[in-house]
Design goal:
9% helix, single chain, mainly beta, disordered N terminus
């Protein structure tokens, strides 16, 4: 009996020792640090795209705070949150979003998410965002007058406008006579313009385009070195009046019934007709002598000219050089008018005479 009692007492003591040992082990277990996870650790997109990520975590201790730090490349972005750190106290999971801007064109944007629990233990994850290089569209030019036609001396106008992704850099205007670059225009055929668009262009039609169209090419370049171009093509449609004023005209023939009557002293007479209706004559080296009208060079004046609407009748108005009074009007019936010569008949008391004048460059 006594032996059994001792055995029971011993067993109870052993159980008490076991329970005491287990209680001591629980008090020594250290707290477990948080474990964070992110569902979108790397992302890329274009400027304006929105990047989303969700930060989740397993915490042994109670949630304390989440700190989000922003870096441009490796440099902290101190403009974000407070000195580059935004503190969140709303707990996990946390939904994060970021709109891609131009700041990340040259360097990745990195966000670091650091969670801290009530035991002051922490973990962190990162989101790295790469910005796609922006794709710039080339300029788009428009011209309000791509083709034009007109008489010699008329002005052609055009306005060039454009839309740009990149800033305007320059516009180059190239001039072609037919398909050949006109080296006399601008610098070696190209005129550079640095003023912003719209650009107002004007060109006065000249004899250079009598036989072949004149073309101007407008090429714009933006800050991204992207280009676009438009053309203006001009066709010359000369009238008799246009030809008359575009050239000087040398008196080269006076004939009646096939017989030539022009004098040598008259063959160097050159007449100029101006668009305002005025005219003049250069009698040349042989003047004041030689017979015929040459003996009276300078006695009369040329007071003006006109053409009828059909441009087949030309009149010269003459006056007295000494009194300034009008004297007479010479009327020519035009038979032929080209860029190289015009032929006309004059009828007077002595019959019908055919005059020929040959073009001379002004």
């Amino acid at each position: 009996m006594r032996r059994n009692l001792i055995w029971v007492i011993g067993m109870m003591a052993a159980v008490s020792l076991v329970f005491t040992s287990c209680g001591d082990d629980d008090d020594d277990t250290p707290p477990v640090a948080p474990v964070l996870s992110i569902d979108n650790a790397t992302a890329s997109g274009d400027i304006g795209d929105v990047i989303n990520a969700t930060i989740s975590g397993t915490l042994d201790g109670a949630f304390s705070k989440l700190e989000i730090s922003k870096f441009i490349g490796t440099a902290p972005d101190n403009s974000y949150g407070t000195n580059g750190v935004l503190e969140v106290t709303t707990g996990l999971p946390y939904s994060f979003s970021h709109t891609i801007g131009s700041e990340g064109v040259d360097s990745p944007i990195r966000f670091s998410f650091k969670v801290t629990d009530a035991n002051d233990l922490s973990d962190e994850v990162e989101l790295v965002i790469t910005t796609n290089a922006p794709v710039e569209d080339p300029p788009v030019l428009t011209i309000d007058n791509a083709t034009a036609a007109g008489d010699l001396g008329e002005e052609v106008n055009a306005t060039i406008t454009g839309e740009f992704d990149g800033a305007f850099a320059k516009m180059e205007i190239s001039k072609f006579i037919g398909t050949t670059l006109d080296d006399s225009y601008g610098t070696n055929g190209v005129l550079e313009v640095t003023s912003e668009l719209p650009y107002d262009f004007s060109y006065t039609i000249g004899i250079e385009g009598l036989d072949i169209p004149i073309k101007f090419t407008f090429k714009v370049t933006d800050a991204n070195d992207l280009t676009d171009e438009v053309d203006l093509t001009i066709t010359t449609e000369p009238t008799n009046a246009g030809l008359l004023t575009a050239f000087n005209w040398r008196y080269s023939s006076l004939a009646q019934d096939g017989a030539e009557f022009i004098l040598e002293c008259e063959e160097d007479n050159v007449y100029s007709f101006e668009a305002d209706g005025s005219m003049s004559v250069d009698f040349g080296a042989l003047t004041g002598a030689g017979g015929g009208s040459c003996d009276f060079d300078g006695f009369g004046t040329l007071d003006g000219w006109d053409l009828n609407d059909a441009q087949d009748t030309l009149r010269w108005f003459r006056g007295d050089a000494f009194t300034g009074t009008p004297t007479d009007t010479v009327t020519y019936a035009i038979k032929e008018f080209t860029k190289s010569q015009w032929v006309a008949d004059e009828t007077n008391l002595f019959g019908v005479f055919e005059y020929t004048y040959t073009a001379v460059a002004k």
